[in-house]
Amino acid sequence: MIIESLTMKNFKSHRDTHIDFSTGISVIMGENGAGKSSILEAVSFALFKQHSGKKIEQLIKIGQKKKMVVDLQFQTNGRTYLVSRERDKSSSKSVLKIKEGNNFQTILSGEKQVTNEIQNMLDMDGDLFLNAVYVRQGEIADLIDKAPSEKKQMIGKLLGIESLEKTWKNMLPLINNYEIKKENITGRLESMDGLKENLKSKIIEKDDISSKIQILNVQIDKMGPEFELMKEKKELLDEKRSEFKRIKSAIESKKQLLNRAENDKNVLNNEIRTIKDKEAAILSIKPKIVSLDILHQLKDVSRSLKNLQEDEKRIQKGLKDIQKFKSILDENHKFYRDYLDIGDTIKLLEDERLKFEGSRTLMEQCTSQKSQVQDKIQGSTEKIVKGLKAANKVLRTDFSRVEELENHIKSIKPSTEAKVEEIRSKINGVQQEISNLKTHNKNLEKPVKELENVKDKCPVCKSTISPDKRDELIEGYDCEIKSNKDRIFQLDHELKGLKSQKHVLTSKFAEIQNINVDILKERIKTLEQSQKELESISSDLEGLEPKVSKLNEIDSLLKEKKTNQNEIKGKYESYISVKGSLESLGDYNSKNEDLKKIQTEIMSLNVNVHQLTEKSGTNLKNLESKILELENLKSEYNHLSGEISQKNSLIEKLDLLDKDITGIKEETVKLDNELESIGYNEDIHSSLQMNLYNKSQELTDLIGQKKELIGKESGILDRIKELESEVEVYGKYKGELRNLKDFIKLLNHIRDLYGKDGVQRDLRNISRPLIEQNTREFFEKFNFEYSDIKLDEDYDVTVYGPAGKNSLDMISGGERIAVALALRLGITQALSGGNLELVMLDEPTIHLDSYRRQELIDLLKRMSIIPQMIIVTHDSDLEEAADTILRVKKEKGESFILES
């Protein structure tokens, strides 16, 4: 399968992203969290509806109410297809189309139908696709660094063996549940031994209890009438006791009422005597409070006189202040006018300044930007010169322009690559010839040894031969072996020369490959943009200079005017303050007229005060104390008058109280007579209650014994029914136990099939040779000096080379990277059924040190064995291996592809 294009709308962080993929190596670059891995997830979602979220709604971009859409165009089996999957908050849609001419025709719709059809076309489901095509983060590093057992587990997971192991483990609790059920049934069957004896014992126990219940019924029936008679007697005495207590309580209540009434009578008599004393006191107070009204008049006139005198002083002060403030205004009027004129000038200057405000800051920013751009231009120029110099050094040229360098590389690169391939082919041919000659010599050495060990028979045909013939045969074999060895020696010499040539050419080709013309072109483009930016900034600075000059001139004038204004600010503020105060004081003539009126009123009030003082016989000094004294007497007079008014009411209450006392005494005598007529005896009542309680306890005990026996009888009857039912099901349990044993045996057999020695072993035995063969084929394409590669049962790797047999730990770091990559591609090839067209790698360099990371990059740069490879990474070094680079960026929560 080859991916041609991918479109994502509102998929995770991608709002609207379209990517066209080509064959070769496509590297998707971006920072962590930029949305790179979402691209691989969108491929899996489009093909098989597989995703990493718990719910499919989590794939829809946050904050988007619209639907999410993923379209994937891919090629398989020589045809081009388009799969489209849509999803909103409540519904989904899936469509599969095939390309006919220039248009796509719908061939299938529906989520399950589309998924099933894609599985049939690709001959794999989603899990197999991910294990085969998708190389997860750290897998290549794990194939190098992990222990053999961990690598075996990791490869088993890719092959699907882990799910078989999980099934094997998950079946154990199921089998254990059935074992527990079997033990429960076995226990039940064991507990059922002696059921009939137990049933017979329970029937005897039930008959004994029934007999005891009959005896208790007779005792209870005999005691009933006697108990009822005692209850009737008690009820009669209960009624008499209630009536006795009621009358006794009424007598006590009457006595309390009588005591309260007599106390109230005494209180009323005391209050009437007190009122008579107060009537005498009120006659002595009345003449003293007659002059109180005159004193109040004198107080009011005196207060008015005092207020007018204060008004007189206030107006006289105001007249003096008015004369003073007018003098200050005259002194500061000139400064007031000057201050206002300067303020108007400042306002005009500030209005004009607004036209040029900000020009100085803009000029500073432009100056800073100009400096930064100049530094950027210098840096870009140095990098371009340095890059050209390094490329010329590698190519042994003297180009001054990138275009010339690019044309030269395009012209020499194919021929150099062809030479490398030609020498590589020669090396493979020489190595194959050496291997064939060595194998042939081994085959020749066998009959020589056999001829040396026999004397008169041919080791091949078993016919009789003479010693001369045997020596002749041995000599012939030895001669051929020597000839082969001589040829091998020549070939080894030739192989060293070819490898030396290959090393020189591959080094040269690698150096050419490392020359990144695109980076140089990008830097030239950046340099040209910076130069244009510098010209724009310089133009802006020329326009800003006259504006800044004018702004400086205005600022100087403003500073001068504000200084002048501050010098007279005190005089101006004094003028404003005095003017406000003068306005608040009012008109001078009007205030003078008010003063004359007040002085006339003061004279009139002085005459009035003199008259009232003579009439009351009191001077102003003692006025307040005299008024207070008479007010207290008046208050006492009013209080006594109020109390005296209650006298008649109290006499009427006293008469009514005398009548109530007489009535209460008569009712009390009547209740005493009723109490004696009842004839209630409390001792007899208590004795009867005790006897009735004892008889009730005796009857309750008998009834309790009867209920207890009835409960036991009911329990025994239930148990008898249970035992009878258990006897019936005894036979059923035996049959169920036989079935359970057979079923448990079957489950254990199935579990053994899923175990390590069952299907897991068969799957490993089938897949391991295929993976080994694929790994060998991929590894040979990396052109290392090794003749073979083997995998043992634990997928541990052994390589065979000029120095013989080597484990993975014994070879170089670059060779270990090559083995790990070949092994992972071999697994992919096996899982994909031998039709490997696409591999997707997610952060392949993660967990690798810098040396091994560079070795992997070098391998990827030379890789042309897979039609399409998509690599997701944040490692910028991988750009060296790319045929196509896609840069992913994320801003404000939205991922997008940068334009190249």
From TrEMBL:
Nucleotide-binding recorded as keyword: yes
Domain of life: Archaea
This protein's record includes keyword Lipid metabolism: no
Cofactor requirement: Zn(2+)
Keywords, in A-Z order: ATP-binding, Coiled coil, DNA damage, DNA repair, Hydrolase, Metal-binding, Nucleotide-binding, Zinc
Details of cofactor binding: Binds 1 zinc ion per homodimer.
UniProt-listed PROSITE patterns: ZN_HOOK
GO annotation terms (biological process): double-strand break repair
Family under the similarity heading: Belongs to the SMC family. RAD50 subfamily.
HAMAP family named among the record's database cross-references: RAD50
Domain commentary: The two conserved Cys that bind zinc constitute the zinc-hook, which separates the large intramolecular coiled coil regions. The 2 Cys residues coordinate one molecule of zinc with the help of the 2 Cys residues of the zinc-hook of another Rad50 molecule, thereby forming a V-shaped homodimer.
The protein's name in its UniProt record: DNA double-strand break repair Rad50 ATPase
Source organism of the structure: Methanobacterium paludis (strain DSM 25820 / JCM 18151 / SWAN1)
